Amino acid sequence: MGTNYVISVVGPTAIGKTALSIKLAQAFNAEIISADSRQFYKEIPIGTAAPSKKELCLAPHHFIHNRSIEDDYSVGDFEREAVIQLNNIFEKNKVAVLVGGSGLYIKALLEGLDNFPEIDPLIREKLNDTFSTEGIEPLQQQLKELDPSYYSQIDIQNPHRVIRALEICIGTGKSFSSFLAQPKPKRSFNIISIGLDAQREEIYDRINLRVDAMMDEGLLEEARALYPKRRLNALNTVGYKELFSFFEGRIDLETAVEEIKMNSRRYAKRQLTWFRKNKETTWFNYKTPFQEIETIINSKIDSASKS
E strands within 178-239? Predict the structure, then answer.
């Protein structure tokens, strides 16, 4: 293991990860890599709670607003680009900060991706057509039949995940989960994983307040401008799909806002389930003084450097 360190900051949405990552970057003279799969997109800053211009000026950030919602950008693309960026950072400093709520993207950078074969793109087209015309239910049932193991592990309401698994099953004749057991590339840096948490009701209150703040900042207008492009995958996101239903007259605005809050709370629950699988993460209450967190991180760096 090398002498470089990635401080990974995880936790549920609205818990304060951005603020902590900036403090860490300042304390360790580090740069920040964002692993939020929606903050990549420059057209949706309000609905993704992307760092403000002021926050972006407080520390160097990477992978914020670097893509368009029109771009086809995968977790594999992110992994390749982020590894290169990390190596560039390590030429200047031994510490980098990784922050975000997208567990798969964090896992890809820290551990490497599973190696999947190339699949005939027509398979994905057919699956997307099924999703457009019949919804996600028949795809869920097909995945349950072809790969019950993976079906039981993932968020089956996420069409991107379901379709990705199905195209591998159909294209290879093997289960998607069979590819997950293959060895992954070794990383040449140490990982210090820090988690922020709170009592469930506190998390939910913070989420509700954030959604209200987003609406005050102009989320409705942001979503209205994007409505013509609502079929894009980047917009299949909490905060936009509910407002799209409002624009289509299926629900009223008050209901849409309540659904954004409800779906955000559900997302936070899934995030915590994912992040708590990593037993190496040191968890802190989101109100923990920064100095206490910094002290723990320094002790981990000292311990790793001596081993």
Answer: 190-197
